[in-house]
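Supplementary Methods. Inverse-folding protocol.

Structures were first reduced to a discrete structure-token string of length 143. This string, shown here, constituted the complete conditioning input.
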């Protein structure tokens, strides 16, 4: 877990750096593709979404969300990714939806820096901050 400071330009710069973004998304896809078949199933995406703990608390109070509501949300998210309606999510579908999500985050953040706790050091937001830090540091080994 770490604390990062970022704004919309940090995230947007990461997404538009095609090599860095593609590499990070490929890493994330590979980590989610538990059976290694090159596509994500509903179950694989659901396992990943469950790690976000979206339904455990509401403003610090434990809540119980009806299972049907949870399933409907997970199905809706899966459908957003599965743009060709094949029943699986391929690498390109995953990359395009992650790009859309990251750009929406960038738009939401705007130009005001925010401090954020990032639990997963391999998250795409962490990778965006790392890329910006590398660019600000400039080339290493010179001098």
């Amino acid at each position: 877990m770490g604390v990062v400071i970022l704004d919309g330009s940090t995230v947007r710069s990461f997404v538009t750096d095609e090599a860095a973004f593609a590499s990070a998304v490929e890493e994330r896809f590979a980590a989610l593709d538990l059976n290694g078949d090159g596509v994500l199933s509903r179950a694989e995406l659901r396992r990943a979404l469950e790690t976000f703990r979206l339904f455990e608390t509401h403003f610090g109070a434990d809540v119980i969300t009806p299972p049907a509501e949870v399933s409907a949300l997970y199905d809706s998210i899966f459908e957003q990714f599965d743009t060709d309606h094949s029943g699986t999510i391929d690498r390109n579908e995953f990359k395009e939806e992650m790009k859309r999500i990251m750009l929406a985050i960038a738009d939401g953040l705007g130009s005001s820096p925010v401090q954020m706790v990032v639990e997963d050091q391999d998250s795409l937001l962490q990778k965006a901050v790392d890329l910006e830090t590398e660019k600000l540091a400039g080339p290493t080994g010179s001098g």
